[in-house]
Write a structure and sequence with these properties.
Chains A, B: InterPro entries: Acyl-CoA_Synth/Transferase, Succ_CoA_lig_flav_dom, Succinyl-CoA_synth-like. 2 copies of one chain form a homodimer. Chain A has about 290 residues and is α/β, with parallel strands linked by helices. In chain A, about 50% of the residues lie in helices and about 10% in strands. The interface between A and B is large, with 60 and 60 residues.
Chain lengths: ~290, ~290
């Protein structure tokens, strides 16, 4: 079972299944390991906390540390104790220590993987202002609500940016942020790439979150030719490289394998199955970037 | 696009894609509709709030109402307004009204589906005390932490219950709750059903959450014969019918299709891909049961 999870973990860190006894000793090694871009740990107890904070602060300058630490609850601490004999410690102290050490704390295994992937693949945002784009006002509204929950701002776009976007949309649709290209992007995904480009060019936008149908327009919905959607996805990848701003995609088809989604996944554009998780991960990335500054 | 989501929604409510203008009029109808067991809504704005509270309170006596309401954030409210012209309203007032009306509020589409499924398929728990069982102390600890986050208690099991469980485990493994049957259940899944049974028999346990490898022991891990795992899953379904206590399964193989998982899914045992989501849904079910009492 450990092995099963270990294989998973080794995608993220080269140390494999690191149930840390002396957490900071692993860090010492990983800090300078050229094959490690981000560090993920599951731990049940911490020994030598001061040493940990010291080493972690050095490490974080070079690469992010994400930790899933058990024992927030009494029952969780009990389970940790009976599992590895580790004393989970007062959780408020753990939280404070992690904060001081700039360690990112997550609350489950899915989050651990998501956050690590994003941290090592995406460019770091300069701030916490995000643009949200979708084919539907409903997706937009829910994603904006969740963005706020995870510390992301969704400001009204500069008039100059709105002027670039407005002609692409059906009259009356919102270019303010969230941007609603409902009705036009399905058949003509180039609209998505043009809207993303306008946002990337805007100094007041630090990251872009596309939510909705992208990735399944051609192969699943038959709404446009495959080449059109693939070209759009290629262009989105290019925009990320050019503007060095993170782009996240939440796709209703995020569970599927399509050529378009694979193009995004294999580059610097993470694809999520859940709109909330995409907002959560972008919020974490913004928080990490801000801590690092 | 509306249709795409509408099909999804119609699995949950017979009203289809109900972007509510007069929310309470839909409720009036669904309240007495024999084909509706649970009611799910996505709404952007509410008109006639007093009428809504009145009708919802009547409805909730018969069936649960789950609502995904946009507009928690400024940007979300802006998106809702530009989408349907609905004024989202002060979110604190919306929250208070939903609480008064005993409406369950969720924050994204995945949650909406999860919660509705659980509400119409599982028996209602008598309280909020849950037992957590797994093959690993790590899964146990994380799930216990998340249980607490969502309002579930994970108390130490009665000595009589622990005495039934202890002989099934390797010496020294915890029977206290969370229960750790690591090392024995993989090859002999009957251990899982016996532990669940002991918990179901305990008056101080209101629900059981199994987390870990169940569902993939035979077909994926080749750790036991398929018949053994299928028999266990059938027995778990029987236990739920007999003791009328909810049983939730989080499986590391929750994305897969195995005969065992399908047996659970097609009965009163929901299967989750994410441990946190299983804890969240069980917490919501406990909350709903408590509101209804």
């Amino acid at each position: 079972y450990g092995q099963l999870r270990g294989i998973g973990f080794s995608k993220a860190v080269s140390a494999g299944n690191a149930i840390g006894v002396k957490f900071h000793e692993y860090l010492e090694y990983l800090k300078d390991d050229p094959e490690t871009k981000a560090i993920a740990f599951y731990i049940e107890g911490i020994k030598e906390g001061n040493e940990l904070i010291k080493v972690a602060r050095e490490t974080v300058k070079k690469k992010p540390i994400v930790v899933l630490k058990a024992g927030r609850s009494k029952a969780g601490a009990r389970a940790a104790l009976s599992h590895t004999g580790a004393l989970a410690g007062d959780d408020r102290i753990v939280d404070a220590a992690f904060k001081q050490a700039e360690i990112i704390r997550v609350s489950n295994v899915d989050e651990l993987f998501d956050v690590v992937e994003v941290l090592y693949s995406c460019p770091l945002p300069q701030g916490n202002r995000g643009a949200i784009l979708s084919e539907g006002g409903g997706d937009n509204a829910i994603t904006a609500d969740n963005a706020q929950k995870y510390g992301m701002e969704v400001p009204i776009l500069a008039e100059a940016t709105q002027e670039k976007i407005r002609p692409l949309l059906i009259e009356g649709m919102s270019a303010a942020n969230p941007v609603d290209y409902g009705g036009v992007a399905e058949g003509n995904p180039q609209v998505i790439e043009q809207c993303v480009k306008a946002c990337m060019e805007d100094d007041q936008v630090d990251a872009v979150l596309v939510t909705g149908l992208l990735g399944g327009l051609a192969e699943i919905l038959n709404a446009c030719p495959p080449a059109a959607e693939e070209q759009t996805c290629q262009e989105l990848v290019n925009l990320v490289s050019r503007y060095k701003k993170p782009l996240f995609v939440h796709s209703c088809f995020g569970k599927e394998t399509t050529k378009s989604l694979d193009m995004l996944r294999s580059s610097q554009v993470p694809v999520f199955e859940s709109s909330e998780r995409s907002a959560m991960c972008l919020g974490m990335l913004m928080k990490y970037a801000s801590d690092k500054r």
